[in-house]
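pasting input
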Amino acid sequence: MLTRGLRKVVRPLVTSVPRSDKFHPSTQSEFINELHMIDPMEIERLPVYRVMDRSGKILRENQDPKFTKDQAIKMYKAMIKTNEFDRVMYDAQRQGRVSFYMTNYGEEAAQIGSIAALNPDDLVYAQYREAGVIFYRGFTYQQACDQCYGNVDDKGSGRQMPVHYGSRELDYVTISSPLTTQLPQAAGSAFALRRAGEKRVVMCYFGEGSASEGDAHAAFNFAATLNCPVIFFCRNNGFAISTPVEDQYTGDGIASRAPGYGMMTIRVDGNDLMAVFNATVKAREIALSENRPILIEAITYRQGHHSTSDDSSRYRSIDEVNMWQKTDHPISRFRQYMMAQGWWSMEEDAALQKSLKKDVLTALVTAEKKKKPSIDSMFEDVYDVPTPELERQKAELMEHLKQYGKHYNLDQYSQ
Amino acid sequence: MIGVTRKTARAMLSRGVNATASVRTHMHFKFQPDDAPAELGATEKTNMCNAIKSAIDIQLARDESTIVFGEDVKFGGVFRCTDGLMDKYGSDRVFNSPLCEQGIAGFGIGAAVAGACTIAEIQFADYIFPAFDQIVNEAAKYRYRSGNEFDCGKLTIRSPCAAVGHGAHYHSQSPEAYFAHTPGLKVCVPRSPIQAKGLLLSAFEDDNPCIVFEPKILYRAAEEQVPVGHYKIPLGKADVLREGTDMTMLSWGTQIHVVREVASIVEEELGISIEVIDLVSILPWDRETVCNSVSKTGRCIITHEAPITCGFGAELQATITSECFFDLEAPPQRVCGLDTPFPHVHEPLYMPTKWKLIQAVKEVMDA
């Protein structure tokens, strides 16, 4: 029987006439005899779990994740690594050196705190604003620049826009632009991994805007009904391009939807690295031991523009952005904690930033000099093996280039 | 802010500048403006984005039931096509929808069924697929399945499409062929500001669900003297842009401008006389104009950005072959996108470029 690993189903199927008149046979809910419409305002808003205050001080000792100095520094460095990369690459786009870029400003703790709580081989699905996650896993600046430039060393063979990272080696599924498509896929992967007996959780990142798509509903319901060990991690950063949360939903955020699917949930302070970490550790434990999905809603703030194609001053005030930057920045909160432990100093901070900036620039200049993938490569991977028609189109293109190649800047492609 | 100042970062960046720029800054086409018909009255220099905004503005003013919505529509839209309209008409009529294309389509159908002139935006045509069920199974069949008891003719869906130079898989698609395969819909693709405004105003009044795919690269790049008032360009009619005798070249959208350039080049350099037709409407399409032209010239090249296999060119090629067979001097040919997902760095090689077209013209003439 397929009961291996399945959590015990609490509600047995009722097929006979109930003995008691107290509970409805199919829902097992109590009968009441007064008409009452439930107003969502009656239901308490889900609280936000937080470990540190805004100045990095732990509020309850029993919630201290007890990081070692090395662990803390590793996570902090990953946040700074992401931040430095963003700065340089955003400017690179402005200078016309890459066609497009998306920053992660303000969401570094949500990304790093969560990925640090997982095993290296837990499978990750992401949206596009999770570069910190793949950097933490070990993606190098060179690999990231190679992808942004779409050069011959890009794992994606120059096929997608910048920031569409992926790495089989790092168990990070290559991202695609369409929103939310990764959610049902994450549920399916979790199902298959469970059946294969693998003790790996699937981690699935998405934004609050993304949660409005039909795919989110499908994913939550499938994951819950089919016992999928998947963590749905929602970065609620306040905006979907220009759309503020007020236009995205009227209910109590994303976390409150989970009980409707029979799914466990927690809302956390997304700018509190410790809270994110603790919640993710717990979620992983529950997901794997009980084979059920968990929804984590990390409340944070998108401090940058949606992308280099956006100017957010058109729809929000600079004062608002500055307020978040000054009073609730994930990086400075954790840094203050580390400095209070005597584990970090402003001198080390400045030195780290300087050295990382140099590393990004080196990677960028190196990436820029590399050739683009060969023309042949455009026809590969449409299928596992090119079809005869694709081979014919490739030959036709090569013939065309023999005569007209001088109009195409062919030098940029590798042979 | 954390870190080195922006000024220092830029200085450090510039020291490593490489001679070969990574980003394509040239465009693969040159927009060719047309003159507006004199009878349409006063004109103003307008790009395609503002021409579209003008159409929506006019419709909001003339029909109180009109609503305009989609993702980020309220602040003006990611391409600024609805800029200022919320301030002018209020957020009850110009508003953001939640991030959900199937919702946009379904909600739009319902609003149209209940009598509102409904203008729904899908932010990029690449993201229209969650809405496919609503559009194909519901919108297209509404009138037919109900015996004309109900219809959603007041629905217009508009969506930016096509190559933009760096859009890759998900910001470059031309999905017209998927929808051309669905009786009950009307589908069109404007090549210019004058066309965009006039086609939209027709679509708004047309009593069938219409989809207008707007080539996004033309939003800023295309500027014309556009009539300032209300006017309509008919759906279902192709446009003969250039008369010729040796060959018909047929396309739509941005690609028309590539075709026009090729027609000039081959006329000047090779003395070949090309008749250029903008199909304008994909569904229904103007069989009469196209077949008359090919019967006259005897040769035909069809070209579009979408991948060749089962692109809309296949329908055109099939019909032209059967209708014009005995008038043809050579088999009709297609020059289209390759059968791959739309690539990023290889876009210049993927596209049906003017060089591929020039080669095809020569081959068809020599056949």
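fyi The radius of gyration of chain A is 24 Å.
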